[in-house]
Amino acid sequence: MSNYHIKHLEEYYQVYRKSIREPENFWEEIAEEHFMWQNKWNNILSWDFSKPEIKWFEGAKLNITENCIDRHLTTRGNKTAILFEPNNPKEPSEHITYNQLSKRVNRFANVLKNQGIKKGDRVCIYLPMIPELAISVLACARIGAIHSVVFAGFSATALSTRINDSDCKMVITSDGSYRGAKTINLKGIVDEALDSCPNVNSVLVAKRIQSEINMVEGRDHWLQPLLDEGSDICEAEIMDAEDPLFILYTSGSTGKPKGMVHTTAGYMVYTAYTFKNVFQYKEDDIYWCTADIGWITGHSYIVYGPLANGATTVMFEGVPSYPDFGRFWEIVEKHKINQFYTAPTAIRALAKQGLEVVEKHDLSSLKVLGSVGEPINEEAWHWYNDNIGKKKSPIVDTWWQTETGGIMITPIPFVTPTKPTYATLPFIGIQPALMDEQGEEIKGNQVSGRLCVKFPWPSMARTIWGNHQRYKDTYFSAFENKYFTGDGALRDEVGYYRITGRVDDVIIVSGHNLGTAPIEDAVNEHPAVAESAIVGFPHDVKGNALYGYVILKDVGETRKHNNLRKEINQIITEHIGPIAKLDKIQFTEGLPKTRSGKIMRRILRKIAHNDTSNLGDTSTLLNPEVVQSIIDGHKNDE
Ligand code: PRX
């Protein structure tokens, strides 16, 4: 038996050592015993980080949906696969069994085929958290089409950029979506996006809010009639281990978003194995991850990882605050949730509401609590531990990234003793390294540095769609022969890791990765703006919020600054989405620059943090005098 399910600390260390000493044997055993293959591999791993090129299970043939659905049908056909909880608590929840999921995925796959979608084609999915989202993801995988899910909170411009970057042929959307008490006109956003996407020739539209929408003749089709026509049997396309499974966009510190490409076999093996262990999932458990499938967390730990284990996975359409701030806890009670996985920003927002809404609900079903997306501060950790877990449900603070595909550093519950704010130990097979700025690895404990990974793991992204050079430059060039995460971390006296935050120009706001450059580009689109620089500053709910320093073209601009602030945020909403709006905008006459013209963000960050006591040496700046005026302006704005 391979070590598929780790149950105590000694076993963790033993399995971890094996996974490092003999990674190929280790992963081969896991792959061999726990998955369904049409053909086994010729080679388990080949890799070269200098190119970079990484291949796992080369030569193997499989379809991930056979692993996530078909193989469960004999033993778990009537078990709930997806438990859908709608936005409105008065609407009934929906239990989709593995048998039903199989039929619905196959039907959907036949619709895709009938619309001319073939293996390797890219399909953009822009849907709210309704069952069709998971089903369309799986339907793409069934026929070997590459899905590119775009979070349905992104704007038309952001959507069209992503559609065009990977040349999607089709968009799957809905008439609209519910978000708490609001509705959002998703189809309208798609229509606007498609004005600049000439290669999209079909749009499938699911009905959700029954709104009147515009349907373009010949291009747009209501989904349901097509599903009704189709057969519920669709043979799975046989895929190579390294065929792309999906593209998912993530922000870079510069330039356009990066379409991270994940491939099939390694991604499947790693997400399934991590899911089983990190959540200690047992057969009858009900597991709930509150993320949206528009992010990697939803891909790996709502859809693929849980379903590959035959789990029951909850999909929640709504928001934590509707109809009131007790919604999460009401759902935990209603469905007797056993594993609950959410983001620190949600925990902080809910902690602010007081305990009354928590105490109304029976949370005794909970066994494991998870956290993901950003560092969890000590206060939020304790609130979560004391009031939700009642000190009996371990918190797994899981560190990972869109690029890593699966969880990388995490406690294993009931195995690894937890420590607030620490992601603790590397998961099986993961070899982290802390590097100094000279490129040397920092060995030993009680040290900090830049977090890298020095050996491949099965679910790492293989490239950036259409731009392999950028993949190399971003992740494999800072440190030779290592994957660079962009994060800083420290290792304590026992070897536990704590992630200290990004060391590049990516800012994590409410758990969402935002690159500063694209937001600055949007701000600079405003006709009155000459230049801008954006930095993060601490925010008690969002973790970080955005602070924009803006130089106006006409310094004597007579219009009201508050109107300009609104207009700037409106442009950001249109270009990226409301998540990237600036919390503070300071108008300034200059920005501190080096002699080569680079903005000194370090100084701007310190001012935004109200930490002006030690700005370091500013005398080498091109314009040192500007620093004081920015400090004065900041104080006046306070
Ligand atoms: O900075 C780290 C932070 O989120 C980044 C990855 O963001 P994204 O690709 O959107 O994926 C988020 C969900 C996996 C990381 O580089 N991050 C993620 N998890 C943690 C974290 N920071 C601290 N602690 C975590 N548990």
Shape: globular
Helix proportion range: 25-40%
Trace the largest sheet across and list its strands. 12-11-8-6-7-14-15-23
- Could you tell me the strand content as a percent range? 15-25%
Largest sheet: 8 strands, mixed
| Structural class category | alpha/beta
Average pLDDT: 95
Number of helices: 20
The number of strands is: 30
Architecture overview:
The chain is globular, with a radius of gyration of 24 Å. The protein is α/β, with parallel strands linked by helices and 638 residues long. The protein is 32% helix and 23% strand. The longest helix has 17 residues, at 98-114. The site of adenosine-5'-monophosphate-propyl ester has 22 residues, from helix 11, strand 19, strand 20, strand 24 and strand 25.
Task: Describe the structure concisely for a colleague.
The chain is of the alpha/beta class. The strands form eight sheets. An eight-stranded mixed beta sheet has the order 12-11-8-6-7-14-15-23, with helices on both faces.
Strand and helix map with partners:
Elements: H1 9-21, H2 23-34, E1 43-48, E2 53-58, E3 61-62, H3 64-68, H4 73-76, E4 80-85, E5 94-97, H5 98-114, E6 122-125, H6 131-143, E7 146-149, H7 156-165, E8 170-174, E9 177-179, E10 182-184, H8 186-194, E11 202-206, E12 220-222, H9 223-229, E13 239-240, E14 244-250, E15 258-263, H10 265-278, E16 286-289, H11 296-308, E17 312-316, H12 327-335, E18 339-342, H13 344-351, H14 356-359, E19 368-372, H15 378-388, E20 395-398, E21 432-435, E22 447-453, E23 463-464, H16 468-475, E24 483-491, E25 497-502, E26 506-509, E27 512-515, H17 516-524, E28 529-539, E29 543-552, H18 561-575, E30 584-587, H19 601-608, H20 625-637
Parallel strand pairs: 4-17, 6-7, 6-8, 7-14, 8-11, 11-12, 16-17, 16-18, 18-19, 19-20, 29-30
Antiparallel strand pairs: 1-2, 3-13, 4-5, 9-10, 14-15, 15-23, 21-22, 22-24, 24-25, 26-27, 28-29
Adenosine-5'-monophosphate-propyl ester is lined by residues 250, 296-297, 371-375, 397-402, 423, 485-487, 499, 502, 508, 513.
